[in-house]
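Input for the complex:
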Amino acid sequence: MAAPDRISNLAGLIAVVLIAGACIVVIQRAARMSGGGDDSMAAELSPGAEARADASATQPWTPPRAKSADEYVEQRHLMVQTQIAAPSDFRTPVRDRATLEAMRQVPRHAFVPDNVAGDAYRDTPLPIGHGQTISQPYIVALMTEALNIGPQSKVLEIGTGSGYQAAVLAHLTPHVYTIEIVEPLAERARRILREQGYDYVQVRHGDGYFGWKEAAPFDAIIVTCAAGHLPTPLWEQLAPGGRIVVPMGSQYEVQRLIVITKTADGRRQSRTITDVRFVPMTGEILKR
Amino acid sequence: MRPASFPASFPSGALSMVLLSAAVLGFEIGLMRMLLVASWHHFAFLVISIALLGFGASGTALTCLRPWLLRRSSHALLALTLLTAVSMPICTALAQHVPVESRFLAALLWRQITHWLLYWALLTVPFLLGAMAIGLWLMTAGQHVGRMYAANLAGSGAGAICATGVMALIPPAWLAALFGGVALLAALAQGRSSRPLRAMAVTAAAAVMAIWCWINPPAIRPDPYKYAAHLQRLVDQGWAVRLERSYGARSMLELYRSETFHDLLLLPLGRRPPAVDMLVVDGHAAGPVLRLAAVEDAEFVDGMMTALAYRLAPPRPRVLLLGETGGSGLWLAARLGASSIDLVQPDRRINRMLLRRPAEEGGAAFNLPGVRLITAEPRHYAEHAAERYDVVHLAALQSAAVGSGAVAGLGQDHLATVEGFMACLDRLTPEGSLVVARGIQTPPRDNLKLLATFIEALRRRGVTEPQRHLVIVRDFQWVCTIVRASPLAEQQIEIIRRFCHEAQFTPVWFPGIRPDELNQPDQLPAPPDGVGDWYYHAATRLFSQDASRFIQQWTFDIRPATDDRPFFQNFSRLSTIGAMRRAMGEMWLTRAELALLFVVAAMLAIGAAGALLTLAPLLFVRELRPRCGRLPTALYFAAIGLGYLMLEITLLSRITHLVGDPVLAAALVIAAFLIFSGAGAAVSPLVGARGGRAVGIAFAATIVAAAALLSFSGAIAHAGGAWSTPLRCLTAIAIVAPLALLMGMPMPLALARLDRNAPALLPWAWGINGFASVLAGPLATLIGMQWGFRFAGSAAVALYLLAALTFGRLPRPTQAPLSVLAEAAAPAAPARDRPSDRP
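Predicted:
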């Protein structure tokens, strides 16, 4: 091939790459603008938080540093290292880096009652009052990873509880919406999230069965299926390609996660993630 | 040594004894009811052991404090009776403030155990005080001891029966105060102290109780994780309102309304539930009552998993709903064109409440043509109804059941047994189907146990290929199992395939299922061979000749439940706890299905407390340690202590099957054992006077009667299902009475022998018997859960045989008196609730 032909081929290639890149940027900006905050929710945000949330649409977003992040640092790192990320004979390690980093940063002890704060980083759920519990750290990490969210994702949590899960999600995306039916818990979670610097997390006291219509569609939803079925309003508010993660278990413990994906044609596919890879037959324990 | 004063007036003493005994036993029954509402049903069995612990400890206390008490018996009696009265409401209220939790976490374990010990210690106090008062009465009764003992038993029996009646009238929270009031009346009728003193003391005690109840109104604080607590939170927020509440011996029934109620099991994706009210029984969600006015409004049921049974049924099926409470099962049947719907619900009050519903709030369902609401126990109805049905829906077994059943595993369910399922299969037409749905658990357990029980039921009916009669489908949350009366035909299999495809359900099993049909669209973890999911794997193994080996290897107990071992929700296997601990770390406590572990722990804890309170003083207080004769005495009194209560609990299971209601059964059994054992104790001197031969005959009759009852009570329970409730209750009493009469003799016969020949051994005997009685409750439950109640009953019979053999080794007249206590009259027979009653 002659030199001028090579040059023109190269120029054409560069032009294609530039045009493709420009198209991607335009599409992303358009997506951000259509999924932006609803004016009716503005009252839920502090002015600073609103500014932060809007800013994420135009520039790379970094989560805040929690107010109590300097406490129990070593315990948090150990928790991530030994309970969540470590390879184990029975437990599937969490590998997503963003999730692991969020688990390292969020001060779990700030979200539990004082009388159990010393146990906050143990591999166990803990009671938080009003008949509710905070899930064990590994489960929180597993659910966060299963949601597969990024800074542009909009995520809804049904059942705020302590607010810890919402805080972890808030390290991955600024678009976090969470609903709690027990009023004292909702108030408490809102207060702690604000104190810790997560005031852009939108907390609502309400019946989570009906979701958060004003902010829909969502890319990911966490829902506890206490009603014995998957709530249809939540399914309707899930964007195509989105995921619903349903932790199944009792109030004290989550035994498995169901990840339900909405296909492009609106049908359902699900898979179950168990926290323990345990073959329930004596003498046979599944190992990695 | 005789007391300082004799009973001033026998009739008033007897009246006081009757009232006090009624108060103590009424409090015991009332406490069971309160625990049913506040906590979980199956803690109630511990109330029996706690009562016995109190009684056992009272024997030791009386023995140790005997000289002091006898010197001031009148005032001591008054004080003990008043303390009993006051302690009932106060200790019950204080116990409710102890933050006990029903689920144990490793991080909080010692704190939780401490709370439980404190909780039970508080509840033991009224029994300890009441038993001390009763024991002191008997110690100071002199020549009237036999009549006072009869008064004790009569009062106890009356207390049990009255408690059952009173529960229908007053809130359970007030039962402790009520029986405290009865104990106050006992103090007033005492007749030993001066009248002015009595009046003043009773008035003061009544004032204390009234002030306490004023400041701290009796209330039941539900376990924070119970549904009742969730409802209370909604009510406090103004988001729920209680529509109705009624009390009964069977249950406390409530109906709530809230816009936040969306509980509708099995609702297909894409459907919206109607407005529902929630029926709550003893603080548990019993089921939604749908607020629908017409069948046309029930389109949400289209696509429910259980609808598959109707697709396989002939047109216009006849439907039986066992245990339904006006929820989706009824509307599903109506919408799918059922020609008749029989809805069986055991609680008459629930049925009355459903029938009172306005038409637009669900009442219309009961006016649909062909709908009948029948009050009957589901098991009894299945066994004795004449009708045949095309669809039998086991709504009573329908449960999300997600997560460990924990102490729910202690509950007995006579429908979910091999015999119960056989009865249900007998109700099917040749093309009929049995259908039940339960939530998915990880690892699987209850659906596998259900399947194993169905397979055994089919095999016992002569089916050689149960796999041809079974269909299992699921989604990501539920498993639906259908059992057909006849093998599935090809066109029915095609119906199943089409149904699964349309509704996006995942097939697990039907004859001819292909590997490519498995585990999609809802994927569950696969077994090592990678084919399908664990449910498919388990099904193939359970159909094979290898089934018993598979059941043995499974981590949880999935042996088919039977009438002899009716613990469907018990999945505990102690042998697999080690593996689960290694795999699940600190969370093993909440995953390991704790029912059995709970019973073992309760037995150890109660045994330790019993040893401390009843045995230790006898071992370490020198004056109480006789120099010889301890071993045969210990063997004998331990044997009858264990055997008595083990037989009582075994019979309780059979009587519960006969009567249907566990609280009613407990009241009947306890009352009958008391009264008739007391009668046996009363006639025991006549037997003893006739010498060793008569005693031997009495033992032999006891053993034969026990063996006969164990053999035939199951058949009686089966036959009695068709009878009315009063007739079943009378039958229960008639079953228990002869055996209880005979079982009332061994203890007083031996006590009389010790009293004559070695009175120093009496405290020893008393303590041993008390300790054994305390252990027997959880021990009998443990044996029943693991090996069946027939085994527990057989063990009890063996213990009575041991006692019979040991009786002759008890001290004889040639033995010299052994201790300084020999000249004292022995403490007379124990108070009520000692499973081995004494004169």
